[in-house]
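User: Quick sanity check before I run a bigger batch. Here is a single chain. Can you write out its predicted 3D structure?
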Amino acid sequence: MSNSQDENKKKTVTIRGVDMSLYERLVKVARDSGKTVGEVMNQAMSTFLGVAGKAGEKIDQAISMSKDVGKSFIEGFNEAKKNIVIISDLESIEVKKEELVSFGKPVSFRNIGKLVLVDIDQDTFNTFIDSIISVNELVIPRNLNKFFVLQKCKFVKKITQS
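Assistant: Done. Predicted structure follows.
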């Protein structure tokens, strides 16, 4: 999606009744992570709505799942402090072994429609892929052990092998 299309989807909104202590904590998280308040809020809302959608009409279940998601969000925030690069908010991406190795840093893939890992062996996966979070479809090479892959996955809807 182009930047102009992204900008057309964004809007300034005012929300009444926001708990100021929560908002101040959100601002601190944004500041500490080098993101805007809007980016952090968009991620938080996207995550909550994804969880609420899975829970259906049961708000108690959505809240419980949101706590798990919140825990993952905090883990992700802490990862940002560990020299991990976050690649996120893409419809689709194909990643090759050569790209990961030459980049030289562990990567966390998040909020991606379809993530295709091409020609990646187990050692490369273990070394350069830190986590895979909120991915609709993950395509992995047949040589990867699914159980090792699953240990690094959260909220992945479908895994297939190519």
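The radius of gyration is 17 Å.

User: Great, the batch can go ahead then.
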